Structures are given as C-alpha cells and as structure tokens.
Automatic annotation (TrEMBL), chain A:
Identification of the protein by name: Response regulatory domain-containing protein
Keyword presence, Phosphoprotein: yes
GO biological process: phosphorelay signal transduction system
Gene3D superfamilies: 3.40.50.2300
Stretches assigned to the Response regulatory domain: 6-127
Record Pfam families: Response_reg
4-aspartylphosphate modification, residue list: 60
Keywords: Phosphoprotein
InterPro entries: CheY-like_superfamily, Sig_transdc_resp-reg_receiver, TCS_response_regulator
From TrEMBL, chain B:
Alphabetical list of InterPro entries matching this protein: CheY-like_superfamily, HPT_dom_sf, Sig_transdc_His_kin_Hpt_dom
Lineage: Bacteria, Pseudomonadati, Bacteroidota, Flavobacteriia, Flavobacteriales
An example Gene Ontology biological process: phosphorelay signal transduction system
Name of the protein this chain belongs to: HPt domain-containing protein
Modified-residue entries (Phosphohistidine), positions: 170
Domain HPt: 131-226
Organism field: Sediminicola luteus
C-alpha cells in the first residue's frame, strides 16, 4: 500500500465544501483534496484506488446513500483501509455519534462551529495534522 | 426569562439614564451592554461590532433618531421616550416604545422581546470572500438552497414527511451560520432534534420559513457567475 498526500473529504453539502476549500486556500497550504458527496462513492473510490490512499479522510456524518457512521463501520473492517486516519467534521453534537466515532478509532471529532473564524481554526488543525502526521508505510 | 439578546447597544446622552441602564444590565448576567452617546459613535459601533439589539432615546442632543434611518437598518431597535413619540418625523413605527426611566420589569420584557421581524442576516462572511469564483458559487448556492427549501418545506409538512423535512432543515443550519443568524441557526438545530423524535412544531417551521424568506431578500439578487 502506498500513501498519497491528499485529503479525502466526504461531504454532501456544497457550501461546506466551498468553506473547506476557502479555508485551506487561506492557510496557504497547497493540499490536494478529493471530494465525494456520500460514503458509498468514497468507499467505491477507495477500494478501486487501493494503491493511492489518502493521508487523511475528513468525514461528515449526515449524508445520503451511505452516511458517515456506516462508512466508518465499513472502512474499519477493511484490512487495508482501516489505518487511514479519519477526522469527523459534523454538525452533530449527539453523544451517541461521538461515542460511535471514537469506538471506530477516529483520529478526531470536530463539531462544525457557528462562526467562520472558529471553523478556519479547525481546518488549520486538520491541515497541521495532515502535514505532520506519520502514517503506516 | 429567555434571553434573546446578548449584545445590546444603548444610545443615550443623559448620564442618569445611562447609569440606570447599566444597573439594569448588571441584574441580568449574560447581557453585554455597550454605551454610545451620539449618532456618529453609534453608527461606527454598529459597523464594527456585533449588536443584537439597539436601544435608543428618541432625541439625542436634541436631534431625533428618525433623521438617521441608516441606524435602524442594521439591527432590531427599541425606542425610549420621556413623553410621547413624535409622529411627525416617523416614516415607520418603531417595533417597541417604552417610557423612561426604564424599570427592571420593562427591561426584562425588553431583552426577551422579539420584534415583529425575522432575524437580520449579515453579509460579512459573504463579503469577506476575495476569490470571485467562490463568491459566485456561494451566492448561487445560497439562493438556490433557500428557494428550494421554501418550495419543499410546505410539501413535506403537508405530507407529514418528517425525515425529508429533517434533511432540509439540517442542510439549512450551515447556511444560517454563514449568514451569522444565530437564533435561526439554533432554531434549525432544535427543530432537527424534534423532527428526529418524530415531533413537528408548526410554529418553529413557520419561523424558519420567515427567516429563509428574509435571508433571501437580503442576498444580492443577481448571479455573480462570470
């Protein structure tokens, strides 16, 4: 397995996607990013590109077709994909969602904040994680 | 008492009334009271700070507030007066008029009072987008999402499709956050939780559609796509 350096962002809301791209762009990082609008499309991509996996997956929870929790369950059961760090970025503050996510070894869980400055800080932390984390070779 | 307003701006030129208002605010932890004593300072403050409610005396240094209509477009406002309101100046009736000196009882009604208007969106985040492509995409997206929501919400309510309604409401939350509509953003989260439990509060749905219409009316009308 070879790790690529891109972020895979699974998010169905185009506004969130624009915010994410803007925040990365404002940080000055040239981080390659790939987006799919639901867990199923993300899953299909990963299993067909097993040799170029993302360095980090940023995951929304509430998506159509296959939601984030279903995606988590499936990926953590896969021999090659289970080690990709996953950071949840969701509007859900539901304890059950948080517990489920950590039970499935997420690397972090962020609730989408109300104000844009706090959002940019979160994306900055995700970018820093992307930049400095070591992943299994 | 439900605290609707946290940041209150008080425009007043009388030191005794200012002291009274400071005392009233001190009795209500959670309220951030800011004082300005003339129209220019008031405009400058409104332009650069978050203000949830503007309270102002009818006359400041002898000048009537209605001569500064720009002040009243920014945020909900309430007029205080020693006597009667001067109708000859007024093009529109203020949302609420209260007598001076303001009592604790009136003050508590006032900070829980919702003027008969939806929460005002802010275009600050939108205006801060330097990248024209993102700005155009964002505007199209907000316009389309709000228009679609206005069409889909009544249908979902009529057919009692609470799951579909929940999806619509969920997606609106982020848009209201982007437009800094805190009360409406909170409303979407509350409504979403109720819908998840199979509960439908039609008043909340009504308030939400009012807020969508209001947000839509504030957004720039033309597409910015190049």
């Amino acid at each position: 397995m070879e790790n690529s350096s891109y972020i895979l962002y699974l998010e169905d809301d185009p506004l969130e996607l624009i915010k994410f791209k803007m925040a990365l762009s404002d940080l000055g990082h040239n981080i390659p990013m790939l987006n799919f609008e639901n867990g199923q499309l993300g899953w299909d991509y990963l299993v067909t590109h097993i040799n170029v996996l993302p360095k980090v997956i940023v995951l929304d929870l509430r998506m159509p077709v296959m939601n984030g929790l279903e995606f988590l369950e499936r990926i953590k059961d896969h021999i090659s994909l289970k080690r990709i760090p996953i950071i949840v970025l969701s509007s859900s503050e539901n304890q059950d969602d948080i517990l489920f996510s950590f039970d499935h070894q997420v690397a972090g869980y962020f609730v989408k904040p109300f104000d844009l400055d706090t959002y940019n800080e979160i994306i900055s932390k995700i970018a820093a994680y992307w930049q400095s984390s070591k992943t299994p070779g | 008492m439900a605290l609707i307003y946290e940041h209150i701006l008080y425009l007043e030129d009388d030191p005794l009334d200012i002291r009274n208002m400071q005392w009233l605010a001190e009795q209500n932890p959670g309220i951030m009271l800011h004082i300005v004593t003339d129209f220019e300072s008031c405009k400058a403050y409104l332009a650069s700070h978050r203000v949830d409610l503007l309270i102002l005396d009818q006359f400041i240094h002898g000048e009537h507030y209605a001569k500064h209509p720009g002040l009243l477009n920014v945020t909900p406002y309430i007029i205080l007066t020693n006597g009667s309101l001067q109708p000859s100046f007024l093009k529109e009736k203020p949302p609420l008029v209260l007598p001076k000196p303001l009592t604790l009882s009136d003050f508590e009604k006032l900070v829980g009072f919702t003027p008969d208007q939806a929460e005002r969106p802010s275009l600050q985040n939108f205006d801060s987008i330097d990248n024209q492509k993102y700005r155009a995409e964002m505007l199209d997206l907000l316009q389309n999402e709000f228009k679609t929501a206005l069409e889909r919400i009544p249908i979902a309510v009529d057919h009692n499709k609470l799951g579909e309604l929940r999806d619509i409401v969920h997606k609106l939350g982020g848009k209201f956050a982007f437009l800094q509509m805190k009360r409406t953003h909170t409303l979407t989260r509350t409504l979403e939780k109720h819908l998840a439990k199979g509960q439908l509060d039609t008043q909340q749905v009504f308030d939400l559609t009012e807020a969508i219409s209001h947000a839509l009316s504030i957004l720039p009308k033309q597409s910015l796509r190049i």
